[in-house]
Amino acid sequence: MRFLKSLSGRFLILTVVFVMLAEVLIFFPSIARFREDFLMDRLERAQIASLALLANEQISNELQEELLQNAGVFNVVLRRDEARQLMLSAPMPSPIVDTFDLRDATPLELIGDAVIRLATPEPEMIRVIGDPSQMGGLLIEVTLLTDDLRAAMLDYGLRILFLSAMISVVTAALLYFAVRGFLVRPIASVARHMTRYAEAPEDANRVITPRSTTTEIRQAEEALLSLQTQLTSSLRQRERLAQLGGAVAKVSHDLRNILTSAQLFTDRIEMSEDPAVKRMAPKLVNSIARAVHLCESTLAYGKAEEQPPTLGRFALIDVVSDVIESERLAVGDADVSFAEDIPMGLVVRADHEQLYRVIANLVRNARQAIVNSGKPGEIAISGQETADAWIIRVSDTGPGLPAKARDHLFQPFQGGATKGGTGLGLSIAAELIRGHGGTLTLESTDGTGTIFCVTLPRGGLSLG
């Protein structure tokens, strides 16, 4: 059974089946041709036997019977010069049941008659009509029993079938070994390389070396070589990044503790009466605060992936109101206003805490951009519901995203949305929305402001 499930085994079986099918298609025309030749031979023998009568009109009954036995027929009728003449005759054991005219028989008729004869085991008396050889008359007609005909056809058919079977076996065997050598073995070798590589993908010695001379197999080996090379390189890079991430996390942890202590000292420095100290202290405090935030963000990003969202239904206005209230406290003396356009009955299906973090991150970035610009601005949050999704937009009238942020949007440590940012906030927000099966996209950004769009599918988590 295992052999039959293999590629070579199935190919062997299919080869035998197809060769036998081809031989069957050859068999029926061949057996029809044999039957026609057999009957034509009887006609020629009968014509030769009738020549004795033409040479000597008076022949004995014994000689006539011998001539008919040698011809294998019972009657011979020869038409010469429009005159139909019974040349030789013997008593027939049974009446004539069918007549076959070989002069105008089509190939399909010959095949059909041959099949019927093979399927009819009882001997029958038939009449056969044909053209005399060597222009010996207009037509010749004989009667004969079909037992010798059918026996000869069976013998010929069995020899044809035996020969066909031998050809099928030999052909299948040759094709089997050829396919096994040129196709199956190279494919099996590629499969073994894949299995061996999967056991230790970081080992470069297990990367396949293309050797096949067959074009298609060679292309598969080269494609596998490229894939394995890239995967091995990616695994090594991932391992190095993991080690680097561990080291950065340790450094960030210690550095955060150091900066936190320094932050306590800056609180006392701000109480100094020295004008120069008072002027420099806020900048020092802001610098230390940014450094602490960077350390905390790095540590947070280095942790395990976010937990899958716990979906629930709640009013979107509740989340938006909480975010706006928190950000109003953080605005301080800056001229930043907030607006919301959320229908009171708009209910979304999402993780409450994660959606809060996403909206808060977008609003916080917008607030920091407006504050850093030194100009007044507004942050607006709107929501709407479509047939397929809930759409939340966070827009601001700030200076727009810097070029580096646009080029590396949602990529951590590749440039943040605000000056001095790390880009971790947007990266984490995009990851949280992807966990909901939705998308976080930048709709527009220019000198007049920025618009981010959050799309949450109404079906919940995406299955695609």
State the gist of this model.
The chain has helices at residues 2-5, 7-55, 61-71, 107-119, 147-199, 215-269, 275-301, 316-331, 352-373, 403-407, 424-435, and strands at 75-80, 83-89, 96-101, 125-130, 139-145, 312-315, 336-341, 347-350, 377-385, 389-396, 439-446, 449-457.
Describe the structure.
- This protein is of the alpha+beta class and 464 residues long.
- It is built from eleven helices and twelve strands.
- The strands form three sheets. It has a five-stranded mixed β-sheet with strand order 2-1-5-4-3. It has a five-stranded mixed β-sheet with strand order 7-9-10-12-11. It has a two-stranded antiparallel sheet with strand order 6-8.
- 22% of the residues are buried.
- Mean pLDDT is 79; it is low at 460-464.
Descriptive labels:
five-stranded mixed sheet, alpha+beta, Helix Hairpins, 12 strands, 464 residues, rod-shaped, 3 domains, Heat Shock Protein 90
- For the termini, the CA-CA separation is 38 Å
Secondary-structure-derived class: alpha+beta
Provide the residue-averaged pLDDT. Answer: 79
In what range is the share of β-strand residues? Answer: 15-25%
H/I helix tally: 11
Number of strands: 12
Query: How are the strands ordered across the major sheet?
Result: 2-1-5-4-3
Number of domain modules: 3
What is the H-and-E element order?
A: HHHEEEHEEHHHEHEEHEEHHEE
What is Rg?
49 Å
Shape: rod-shaped
